[in-house]
Amino acid sequence: MSKPKPYGYELILDLHGCDESTFNRESLTEFFVQLCDAIDMVRCDLHFWDADNTPQELTSPHTKGTSAVQFIITSNITIHTLNELRAAYVNVFSCKPFDEKVAEELTWRFFGAKSHHIRFIERD
């Protein structure tokens, strides 16, 4: 039997030593626009969550940052930024194939990451 076609594709990026000035809603919105254009994805709803007004007992200072979900026609792109650690964690998941190398390079360059680690998974 032949191997079935993957259901989806997921790129997981851990970025460190980032330019934390990019960790705001305006910049993250621009990131999603650039990334979706570069990998030919159609953007839908965009949602943000910021830890700024979260009670201290529910979070730690080193975990404060901005999270966002950019829904796309074929699934979603998520990001979690951690200001104090100058880190960003990005997941691109799509049932539609995309060029993971283009997504990887655009992402680490956009955030000015000094180092990054990636994983690319074909989901079945």
Order of helices and strands: EHEEEEHE
Q: CATH class, anyone?
A: Alpha Beta
The number of domains: 1
Strand content: 35-45%
Question: On the 0-100 scale, what is the average pLDDT?
Answer: 92
In whole angstroms, the N-to-C terminal distance is: 15 Å
Q: What is the fold-level CATH name, i.e. the topology?
A: S-adenosylmethionine decarboxylase
Radius of gyration: 15 Å
Number of H/I helices: 2
Counting helices, strands and paired strands, the structural category is: alpha+beta
Estimate the helix proportion, in percent. Answer: 10-25%
Fold topology:
Elements (H helix, E strand, L loop, with lengths): L7 E9 L8 H14 L4 E8 L15 E7 L2 E8 L4 E8 L5 H11 L4 E9 L1
Antiparallel strand pairs: 1-5, 1-6, 2-3, 3-4, 4-5
Helix pairs in contact: 1-2
Could you please describe the fold and organization of this structure?
This protein has a 6-stranded antiparallel beta sheet with strand order 2-3-4-5-1-6, covered by helices on one side. It has helices at residues 25-38, 100-110, and strands at residues 8-16, 43-50, 66-72, 75-82, 87-94, 115-123. The mean pLDDT is 92. The chain is of the alpha+beta class and 124 residues long. A hairpin with a 4-residue loop joins strand 4 and strand 5 (87-94). Helix content is 20%, strand content 40%. It has a single domain, classed as S-adenosylmethionine decarboxylase (4-Layer Sandwich), CATH 3.60.90.10. The longest helix is centred in the first third of the chain and has 14 residues, at 25-38.
